[in-house]
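If your schedule permits, I should be very grateful for your opinion on a structural question. What I wish to show you is a protein chain and, alongside it, a tokenised description of its three-dimensional fold. Would you kindly read the sequence against the tokens and tell me how you understand this chain to fold? Here, with my thanks, is the record as I have it:

===
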Amino acid sequence: MRRKQHLNSPIWPDTSINVDEFDGNIPSSRVKSWQDFISFVNEGKFCEQDDEVLFRGQRNGSWALTPSIARLSENGTYSQKAAEIQLENFKYSIRGRTKVPVSQLSTDDVWALGQHYGLWTPLLDWSRSPFVAMFFAMSEPDPKGELPKNYSRTVFRINRTKLSEYMDEDFFINPLSSDHDRLISQDGLFTLSPAGETTLEYQVINSLAENGILVDDPDTLKEFICKIHIPISNDIERKAAIVALRRMNLHFANLYPDLEGSSMHCNDLLREAETNHD
């Protein structure tokens, strides 16, 4: 196994199913640079013209599609009981703090609201924009001393149109409440990870396999779900990518249209100014 494990995956559009702790059973691929990722997006190589394709960015190339409520466990799953307790506690804690009374919000709306304000939930954020996903993959520096060292950021790609034919109706969550300003700004929606002993990855693969899809063939499975590594070997490269995305008007102040987003954006600007001054 090579030290830079993202190199085990071929260059897009080729993919491989590596079946390891780094990439799991999802077809994985890579680009040579963040500039190539932007070029491929602009050339339409990651999107199907007639399908709705969603993207999710993650800081660490080894991270699976694990919702926050499941990150306390060793196997990336959560129990239905834990979810019920979390949901009930959150409902009572936000009384009088929402645009719409909490009693009028659906379960999906409550989870979605909590997701965007740091609550541990079964949801995962996705965006229709690959550039928004790239921003969230690049937005945070790697912690100093993190081991093993992270050499790639990841953008996951799923085809909502194709997957919807095989997944339960509640797999995709697209709430209508007026409390979701961030969801609108990020052109986003959610997936709901299953409770119990199954992860989202296996839920997708098992559902497809049960319907006769050749899930052992990477070229077939990547039409439903895949993982794309973007190599970032140092923070200078990451900052360059963030500056490029800022020229597209993608930054915290726009993606988080509230005081927290404004604060995070200003913090980024100050951090860059101080770094350049040094």
Notes: The chain has a mean pLDDT of 91. The radius of gyration is 19 Å.
